[in-house]
Design a protein that fits this description.
2 domains, alpha/beta, 11 helices, 296 residues, homodimer, Rossmann fold, 6-stranded parallel beta sheet
C-alpha cells in the first residue's frame, strides 16, 4: 500500500505561497486578507477557524475574524457579508459551515461576492469552472475552486497519478466535495461515476473503478464488502470522530492488504484543504488587483 | 421496442402554456416576450430561429428578432445583449449558437442577465440548479434549466420511467446537454456515469446502464458493437444531417431488435427542446413580475 502524503505537499505549497506574498507585499505595499465569519460557538467550528487563521499568519495573509451570536438573524449575517463584500481591504470571505440554522445556508453563501468566494461554494463559482472545457482552462482562468476538491487534484498531480481516461468513482454528492470533484475530474478527461446513498449495487462500481474518491462521513464504510481493482487509488475525504479517535470513510485494515495507493485520514487530503484556502485567498487578491503573476 | 413520443407531450405542454398566457395577459395586460439574437447568416441557425419564433407566436409569446452581421465585434454583441438586459419588455434572451466566432461564446453568454437566460447556459444558471439537493427543489425554485435536458426529464416523467436509484449513462459532456442532464439525473437520485470521447471501455458501461442518454453528434454510434441491458431506456439527442436525411446517434435498426424504450430522432427530444424554451420564457416572465402562479 502506497501512502499519498498530503502534509508534505501542503508544506511545499505553503512555502511557495509565502514567497509569492513576500514579493507582492514588497511591490504593492499590500497584503492579501481573509475575513473568517463564524456564527455561534460550535466547538469544532471554532477549532477549524483557529487553524485557518493560524495558517493565514504562517504565510503572510492578514486575517479578520467576525463572530456573530447563535441567534443572529439572516439579515444580520447578510449585512455582515455585504459589508465585507464592499470592504476593499478584504480579498476573501470564509463563512464557516455548518450554520446553526441550516436553512439560511444557501441565501448566505449566495450573498458572498463570487470574486471573494475563497471556499468556491457560490453557484457562480461552481458554474464557472464546471462549464470550462479542460483542466488547463480552469488553471489558466484563475477561478476559485472549492478547497478540498482542488487539494485532491493537486495531490494526484504531485504523485503523478494519471486521471486522463481513467474511470473515477465519486461516492458522496455534497456541494463541498462530491459534485465539484466530479466536474474537475471530468475536465481532466476522466470518465466519472457519481454515486451516493441511493446508489444500488455500489459493489459493481468499486470493482471497476481506477480511482475512488469517498466523502460520505461513515467510518470504515469502504470495507471488505467491496471488491477493489488491483492498483486502485483511493482518496479518503471522510473525517469522522469516533471513540477511537478520528478516522476516515475507508477501512485501512482492509485496503492495506490490497495493492492500492491511498490518501489516508489523517494526513491526506485534510491538510491540503486549508492550504488551498490560502492559495484561493492569494488568487482572489491577484484577481482583484489585476496583477500579472505566474500561475499558482 | 417502445417509442417515447416527444411530439405528443410537446403538444400537451404547449396547450397548457397557451392557456396560462391567456390568463396572464387578461390579468396583467402584459405578454411574455422573447428576444432572439442571431449573428451572421448560418442557414441552419436561421431555420432554428424561425421555428422558435413560430412556436412563440403559437402560444402567445411576443418575439423580437435581432440579426447582427457575421463580422459583428464582441463589443457589438455585448452592447446588444446589455440593451436587452435593460429592456423591461423583454423577459428572455436567446443567443443562437454557434456564433461565427466561437471564441466569443463564453463572454457573450456570460453577459446575459441570468434571470433572462432562457437557454439556461449562464454559469450562474448551471450552478444554481446543480447545487440544489433534489429535483423537487429544482422544480419549486422556478429556475431556468437548459431546454434539452429539461425536455428529457419531462419526457421520462410523462412515460413514468423511474429515474430514482437507476444507473444512468450520459455519453457526451457538452454544456448544452451532457453536463446539465447529469446534474438533473443526480438530483433525481440516479447514479450517473459521465462518459465522452476519451472514455475507455464504453462497452462495459453500456452493458450495465438502465438509462442511456447519448448526445455526441455521431450518426448511428450506438450500434451492435455495444451490448445493452434488457429493458434499457435510450434517449437519443443527436441530430445529424446525413445524405439519407436527419438521423440520431443511435442505430435504430440495431436497438429495435432489443427490448428497449427509445426517444428517437426525429420525433423524440428535439420537439421538446423548443417547447421548454417557451416554458422557460414564461417562467422568466413570472419570476420577473413576481407573479404567484401554479408551478409549470
Amino acid at each position: 500500500m502506497e501512502m499519498l502524503n498530503g502534509r508534505e505537499l501542503a508544506k511545499n505549497i505553503k512555502k511557495t505561497i509565502t514567497e509569492k506574498i513576500k514579493i507582492i507585499t514588497k511591490t504593492t505595499n499590500q497584503n492579501p486578507a481573509l475575513a473568517t465569519v463564524l456564527i455561534g460557538e460550535n466547538p469544532a467550528s471554532q477549532i477549524y477557524i483557529q487553524s485557518k487563521i493560524k495558517a493565514c499568519h504562517e504565510v503572510g495573509i492578514k486575517s479578520y475574524h467576525y463572530n456573530l451570536s447563535t441567534n443572529a438573524t439572516e439579515r444580520d449575517i447578510i449585512n455582515l457579508i455585504n459589508d465585507l463584500n464592499n470592504n476593499s481591504n478584504i480579498n476573501g470571505i470564509l463563512l464557516q459551515l455548518p450554520l446553526p440554522q441550516h436553512s439560511l445556508t444557501n441565501n448566505c453563501i449566495n450573498t458572498i461576492n463570487p470574486n471573494k468566494d475563497v471556499d468556491g461554494l457560490h453557484p457562480l463559482s461552481y458554474g464557472r469552472f464546471s462549464l470550462l472545457k479542460s483542466w488547463e482552462d480552469i488553471l489558466k482562468s484563475n477561478l476559485l475552486v472549492p478547497c478540498t476538491p482542488l487539494g485532491i487534484m493537486k495531490l494526484l498531480q504531485y504523485y503523478n497519478i494519471e486521471v486522463n481516461k481513467k474511470l473515477v468513482l465519486v461516492i458522496g454528492r455534497s456541494n463541498l466535495v462530491g459534485k465539484p470533484i466530479a466536474m474537475l475530474m471530468l475536465a481532466k478527461n476522466a470518465t466519472v461515476i457519481m454515486a451516493h446513498s441511493k446508489t444500488v449495487n455500489l459493489k459493481q462500481l468499486t470493482a471497476i473503478a481506477d480511482i475512488i474518491i469517498i466523502a460520505i462521513g461513515i467510518p470504515n464504510f469502504l470495507s471488505n464488502k467491496y471488491s477493489l481493482k488491483k492498483g486502485v487509488v483511493i482518496i479518503d475525504v471522510g473525517i469522522n470522530r469516533t471513540q477511537h479517535g478520528i478516522c476516515g470513510d475507508v477501512d485501512l485494515d482492509y485496503v492495506k492488504t490490497k495493492n492500492v495507493a491511498i490518501s489516508p485520514v489523517p494526513g491526506g487530503v485534510g491538510t491540503m484543504t486549508i492550504t488551498m484556502l490560502l492559495e484561493n485567498t492569494l488568487k482572489a487578491f491577484i484577481n482583484q488587483n489585476k496583477l500579472k503573476f505566474p500561475q499558482l
